[in-house]
Every structure is written in structure tokens, then in C-alpha cells.
## 1
Amino acid sequence: MALKRLWELDAIGITDDGVKDNTASMQQKRLQETFSYDGNRYTVRLPWKAEKSLPNNHSQAYRRLIRLEDQMQAKPEEAFAYEYGMQEYISNGWVERANDPGSAGAEWYLPHHAVIRHDKATTKCRIVFDGSSRYKGVALNDLLEAGPPLQADLVGILLRFRRFKVAVQADIEKMFMQILLHEEDRDFVRFLWRGFDRDITPSVWRFTRVCFGLTCSPFLAIAVVNKHAEDNAD
């Protein structure tokens, strides 16, 4: 095993990735054919592996919400940060109320929980939506194509970094939230929320944007950036 790793390290940057790159390019092009652009934002479809049919996991999502509320009762500061983060989703239109009951097999509820990072200067509490949560042996991520990694090769970045005196880097703020999710896929990214008020029935919300926690989200986001760059190369 150690010898194999040594050979792999020696081959970094000189191996022939032509076949892998060609496959990734074909998958990206096929996905990009489903994109639409209104002059302001891109709309994408979820990359389904096959015919989508899911059990109704509302009861599981409700149990997970109860567990979250129990955990937050003893942590008022974290509860406040969580509610603030959820309100950001709502006020920015990243999620919307799901007023229709949904069709059998055509809806899914994402459980959610908090990840607390005290070492972060800005977002100490991140809301994580669990696309890998299983119900009756099935998870939403099981039915979605993860897609090939489209991130730039790290070795290539390091080599190009040395070519010039000045290097520039940029960051797309809230990258996933900049991309609209097609109307027909939104009922598969529902979730329950009631602001930690157990006196009311949880409301059903659904994402209007590409959601954290789905296996395909990084692929979708970078494919959109690549397409926008290609279409505006001039």
C-alpha cells in the first residue's frame, strides 16, 4: 500500500487524464442542455439517475425536527443563530412555502440540523440539510447523479500560480443560492420548520435554489459557472 501511494504521488501532474476529462466534459454538456438563463439567473434541473419515486418521509423529518428542538432548548444562543439563519433563507426567497400537498412518490423532506463552528469569525452556525438521510432504505442522494469533479486541478493551479508576479482570486458569495431550481424539482427538497415554537404545526417549505446537502450541488454550481464563462468568452 505504501509503495502504491509513492507511485501515485510520483505520477501527480504527468498521468494521462484524457479519458476521465472527456467523460466529465460529456456529462457536463449533457447536464448543461437542461439549463435555462433569463438574463439574470440560471435555472437548473436535478440530475436524476432514473425514474424518481420516493416514499413519503414526512414522519421521519418531523421526528428529526423534534430532536433538533430538544437539542436547542438547552442552547439558546445556538437556537437564536439557527433561527436567524433560517430567516435569511426565507427573507431572501431561497425557500418558499409548499402550499400543495404534493404527489405520491414525488416529494421528499430534508431533515436538517446545526453544525457549530466556534472558530469561524462569521458563520458560526450553519444549517445543514441532510440529503443522505435514509427512509425505508432510500435516500434522495441515492437517486441523484453526483457528477464528475469539475474543480480545477490543484497541481495545475499551483503551477500557473508561479507564472506571473500577481495572482488574483475571487469568491462567489452564496454560490449555490445564486442558482434557481426548476419548479418541477422543488417538491423533492421540502423541509419542516416552525421557528422552535412547539405550540404551532410545522410549516412545509421547499427550496427555490440549489440546496446544500445534495450530492449533485457542487457539480451543478460549477457547471453553471463554466457554461456562463463559455457563453460570455468574448
## 2
Amino acid sequence: MLFSPFEIIKIAWKIYTENFKLFVRVTVWGLLPAIALAVVALANQLLGVAFYNYGLLLYLAFSALSAIILIWIQLVLLRLVNGSVTHQTINLKETKSLAWHDIVSYFWVSVLTSIVVALGFLAFIIPGVIFGIWFAFGTTIFALYHVKGRAALSQSKALVTGRWWKVFWRVVIPYGLYVLAIAGATILIELALGAPNGFKELQTYTGPWWSSIAEAIPSLLFLPLGSAVLVTVLHDLEAHKNESPAIPTPPTP
């Protein structure tokens, strides 16, 4: 029998707390582009129109850098979590180095997933949700097994087929709590940083210059939990892939 959603949360939390220091050594790198974006926002606020064109270019450059670093972080985290789940010793230095070579392939699997899910939502909301669960493990499968492109998506769909509703609740409930935790932490940080000046910056159209940092800290802090959920559910599905489904998969859109 598959782990219940709350068992998955418990397992993911155990992985998170036992490896917290190790995870922070990876996720902390995500603060660099966030700090750079905050500096650009501050310069734009202080210098105004004179800095606008430069600020826009720098913003785009640091946003692209942020996306690359986040992919790298996700790759490393998934492999570290997998080592914890499978009780394998993972060399952090080697894992971090190898992850740089896999960024493009991970990105491609992510793009394919996004395109398919987006097309599903354009056709109708329900197909989009179905596709989202079918292909939820595509990037994780690539990170752990180096299965690339459409093959990763096909393998993800094969694991979910016949157990769609079971997988749905085992992904949505942990991730729902995960998103709420990030949102709550972000609000608390913004309130703490906005209090000294009476929350005036929070009321502006562009928002405070430090917003990128306030948003990055909780997202990076809880990111390993999301990775732990995906890896835990993936291995659980693999361990029970011959199990007869009690609830049928939704009809193909």
C-alpha cells in the first residue's frame, strides 16, 4: 500500500530535518541573484530614470542567472534527497559539479512538461490537471536516472497510470501545505522588514527594493521539502508499481 499523504509529509520532514545543514549549503547560493536583484531595485529607486535602461538590462540578466542557479539547486537537492531515501553516501562536491552539466537537459524536460500542461489548460482545465499529475515526476526521473526528454515524461505517466487519484492527493496535500508555509513565512518577513517605515514601501506600485530577498529566503528554506516529497512519492510508486489500483485513472482527455 502506498504511503498516505500525511506519512509522506512525515517522511519528507524527517529527511529535511536530518539533512538541514547539508541542504542549506546548497540553497544558500540562490540568495546571490536575489541580493543582486535587490541592489538593482535599490539603485533604480535612488537614481530613477537615469538608471532605468541599465536597471532593466541588469534585472533581465540577474533573473536569467537566478533561473539557472535554481535549476542547479533543484538538481543537487533531488540527488541529495535520493541518497538519503536510498541510504547511499552522496559526495556533495561531485554532485554539485555534475549538476552543472545537466542543467540544459533538466530545463528541456521542464519545458516539455510546461508545454503539455499548458496546452491541457488551454483545451480545458481538467486535462491540464490530469497532465500535471501524469508528468509531475518527469524532472525528478531525469535528475535521478538521467532519462531525458519525452522518455522522462513517458516514464512518469507510466508510474501514475492506474493510480491517478492516489497520486493526486499524495502530491497536492503535501505541496499545498508547502506553499502555505512559504506564503506565511514570506508575509512575516515582509511585515518585519516593512514595519520600521510604517509599511510605506509595501504600498507602492513597484514594491520594496528588498522584495526579491524576502521572497527568496522562505522559498529556498523550504525547497528541500518539496524535493523530499517528490522523491518519496516517486520511490513509493516504483515500489508498488504492480499494485492493482483501487481507484481508476481519470479518462484520457
## 3
Amino acid sequence: MARGDRCDSELAHARRGIVEISQTQRQERRWGAEIADAKFNLP
């Protein structure tokens, strides 16, 4: 039972890490788009 609990908590931790990574990638994509817009709008 304890082993299954540990496995579940590790899985939850991994899922949380995956969510954080995907949020970070989305933020970086947004910044990349803003930077591209800024470069495009330069005189």
C-alpha cells in the first residue's frame, strides 16, 4: 500500500512538472510572438 501511495505521489509530481513545463513553453511562445511583432514594427 505504501509503495502504491509513493507511486501515486511521484506520478502527481511528474504531472505537475509537465504542466509547469507546458505553461512555461506557452509563455515563451507568447514572448517570442511579442518580440517578432516588435521587430516587424521597427521603422
## 4
Amino acid sequence: LGVNDDVEAMTRDMILQWLAG
């Protein structure tokens, strides 16, 4: 589902930012 892809991408970005923080 497109919505699921958007959520996964946003979550992935948040995780990457948290790890890089």
C-alpha cells in the first residue's frame, strides 16, 4: 500500500536521524 510505504519511509528517516543524533 502507498500509505504503508510513506509510513515506512518516514519511520526510517526518523530512526536514521535518531541514530545520527
